[in-house]
Amino acid sequence: MSGGTAHAPISFGINLGFCTKRWVTPELWAPLVRERLGLDLVQFSFDLLDPMWPDAIVDRHASDMRRATEAAGITVHSAFIGLAHYSFNQLLHPDPAVRNYAEYWLGRAYRFAALAGIPRVGGPLGAIPARLDGSEADALDPADYAELIARMNRLGERAAAEGLTELYVEPTPLRREWPWTIDQARQMMNDTAGSAVPWRLCPDWGHATFAPLYGDVTDGMESWLRDLSDVITAVHIQQTDFTLDRHWDFTVPGRVDPVEAAALLRRTGVDACPVFLEVFYPFEQDSASILRALETSCARLKQALA
């Protein structure tokens, strides 16, 4: 209830990137998510599993995930590529052989997702290399962009063959990655409109509010959510300061207010989309403090989005 007006709660879950190197199997993270955090919706991270592992290992982990999530009453909405694969430039690497491998890697990710009962897969697509003088281009080379779209359409065919229902692009605030503007994101959605499995967007609160790239970000996410609402079907939320992509939890002071975020989602018509907390921690931080921070953050976000 807000201002006397009834509204449906916004679905809230958590990206499992926080589990990296800690709670790495579903037998560990499923009860933690359900019992400690009080959540029944997650976004899997491929930082917890490499789809390039041998089939026997991948298949066993997929079966384990189905069993553990069903037992805990957890829905795995989607699977995102994670930080490990993100670091390799992927579909925009300067070596065409690496681009081919990245496309194959995603196909393997789709295979695992299908086996695990996860209907959606996504993440950032790739990054072109930096120039020797450090300058940044405003646009991809047209040939590189055309190749990227062709790969996305082939990946749509692969996803359809695996029975997936949706693929995601996560826009990032880097000129070397694509897309990083609203217009680029719209163009990409138009150019992949014929994909066998639809491509959709998952914007991130700390990406769209990155002031060093975008300048005035006082409206926060509003322009992204408003202008792309028809092609957004999931959202990442984090605490941040608008100066870097922080991925802090909500025990850290920052510029994202959960109540204002919920109002913005409703105002822009994106409130039917699930919202996932995506936070990362130093590997050396103790696990107990992370759990305490996550409990506090999830409780605050659940209340704001209710």
Automatic annotation (TrEMBL):
Gene Ontology terms, MF aspect: isomerase activity
InterPro entries assigned to the protein according to its UniProt record, in alphabetical order: IolE/XylAMocC-like, Xyl_isomerase-like_sf, Xyl_isomerase-like_TIM-brl
Keyword Lipoprotein: no
Record keywords, A-Z: Isomerase
Domain Xylose isomerase-like TIM barrel: 36-284
Pfam family, one: AP_endonuc_2
Top-level taxon of the source organism: Bacteria
Protein name: Sugar phosphate isomerase/epimerase
Organism of derivation: Ancylobacter aquaticus
